[in-house]
Amino acid sequence: VSARRFAPGETVDFVVVGSGAAGGVIARQLARAGLGVVVLEQGPRYTAADFRHDEFDYWFNLGLSNKLDTNPQTFRPSASETAQRVRDFPAAWYAPSVGGSSNHFTGNFWRFHEVDFDERSRLGPIAGTTFADWPLTYAELEPYYTQVEWEVGVSGLAGASPFDPPRSKPYPMPPLPVKSSGVLLERGARKLGLHPFPAPMAINSVPFNDRPACAHCGFCIGYGCEMQAKASTLYTMIPEAEATGRCEVRPRSYGSRIETNAAGRATGVAYFDADKREHFQKARGVVVSANGAESPRLLLMSANAKFPDGLANSSGMLGCNLMFNTYTDVHALFEHELNEFKSVQVTRIVHDWYDTDPKRGFYGGGGLDGRSGPMPAVWGAFASQGERRWGAGLKSLLEAMPRAMVVATHGTSLPLMTNRIDLDPDLKDAWGLPAMRVTYRDHPDDLAFASFLQDRAIEILHAAGALDAWKVPITPAAGSPHLLGTARMGNDPRSSVVDRYHRTHDVRNLFVCDGSSFVTSGRGQPTMTIMALAFRAGEHIARFARRGEI
Amino acid sequence: MDSSGASRRRFLEASGGTLGFAWLAANWPQVAAAAQHAHAASLADDADRTRFLVLSAEQARDVEAIAAQIVPGGRTPGAREAAAVYFIDHVHAGPWAAGAKDFLAGLADFQAKCARHHPGVAQFADLDADDQLAYLRHVERTPFFEQMRFLTVLGLLASPHYGGNANKAGWKLVGFVDQHAWQPPFGYYDAGYEGFKPYATPAVKGSQS
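Above: the input entities. Below: the structure tokens describing the complete assembly.
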């Protein structure tokens, strides 16, 4: 069966805006349920042969990334400041392409724990934040986590972590081979009485679902996988959606506006094609899965007389509660060679500090992983701190790269009304649409917990025998690839944008599902949960459509 | 370090990677072709190092001299030997052309201040090594120096395609080998790993603080 092509003017069952971790899954679920689907993808459609091992282009020249000349962004730490145009690296970083950011992700596929869904009930309110429970539980999402592991493909070792939540099935693939960074993290952590365990990764450790095993080339984070071993929806969900004969994926199709009718229903999506010609795709239902920054932007750009503050924004919450997760690096040198440029980024993780402990005096939970740096230029540019900034100190650091590793810290971000995506009042993109404005300042507890984790990382590295270990100083976040919370899920239409099935409270046939749906940030690895939510959303949206409930 | 052990390991890794690739080519020829393409594209050393596109000869002398202090040569190649100055020149004519004006203004400011600091010396590159080091310590917190530091690291370690990293001197310096496939063991510490040992008793959640 070949991919479907819909005629111009035809009304399809659903338009899905975005083809990444969420959109790819939802398109496949809707198409498999018998519905006709058009997927609008802003970026191009790459093949495996298009991906290159070009560190400069991918990390310093926005190779796979959203482009700041055509798709500019502005950033400010708080609403009292004028946002400045972002010059070097996007504040909201993603990979516009069929497969979206699942093309360039690292593939860390932690499940959320029970506590991520009901932490507000366990801890009580946190002043000045919009900290809240999710309208669903881990138990409700568990079957969909299992679906991600078996249908998208995750390698790991069930039962290895004493902290893991219950699971209904083991992983379909064994863990990837451990790297020296994993062995050292495990050695140091076990010496301290902690519980390191093999990292679950969305990368094939053995051939799986007609895709080969990882060849350990090392180019995962920030790169597309030319081996097709990393489980991008480009290789997994999208071809399966197209194989139904009911799904058409349109690359270089940039959604600009969702139209609504007099009854307040969505009628379809206006978009620009590769030649900047505008089209309108009519649909019975619209699913927005454009990521946690572009989804609220599209809904805000779709404001009209009936919805003056943006579509699905009667709560005033649309675009707010942006959460980045905290990420920091701790570097170390050992006596012998690790050669961390080889193979996947992460093979061992530590979850002993996953839960918030009120005794610490601040909110926060997270994890550590042992990883590569990731590659020479990024490592050389950012590992060089203090005495190693330049001269003989830098030279000796560079010579030591084979003996170097990183422990990365991953932590919570509290939801704040003041951290948000909205439309820049002045700046326009290359299509004349309002540029994205990002306003973000970490909550002090987020930074306090990141600092706490850095101290634990130093202890583990010394216990593992590091000759030297040092922290990259923690600075306030000015951007992230984790774009969470901006169309939050909830039962109360006054304080959330979508309901527990991702249906917007305000527009019956409009759904939003991606990182924007998150109520809390989790501990730093969102894509597994984005995909689990998308499997669940796809199932429910198809059910609503079959019953005529859209 | 046991160098004979290290070289034996490298040989085993290299042959292991090759064997893995042959297996891949037999089983997934299209994937193997893509992997080969990704690998080849990153290795291409097709940079023209016969002329500068943005810098004058006089500017290039100072940029090269600064870079050579940031990553000095000696026993192993440094920024000068890796031709980092060509990276710094070429990116400002290509991908970072938009930043060329600011970079050149920063360089002009650096040169003017250096001339005031060392009257009678034509330019920074003409200072003796100790005076160069002393002057760079004097300006090491300036944005221009930080930019030069960043550009020098990239000039050493970005693909030779961008003008620096000549003869992959930078990659050799840091022990990086771009190969499309590797097999374990990857390093010293995982070679002797005895396997993951499960925990006997479940941990109490949240017990660590």
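Note for the figure: Residues 444-463 of chain A form the longest helix (20 residues).
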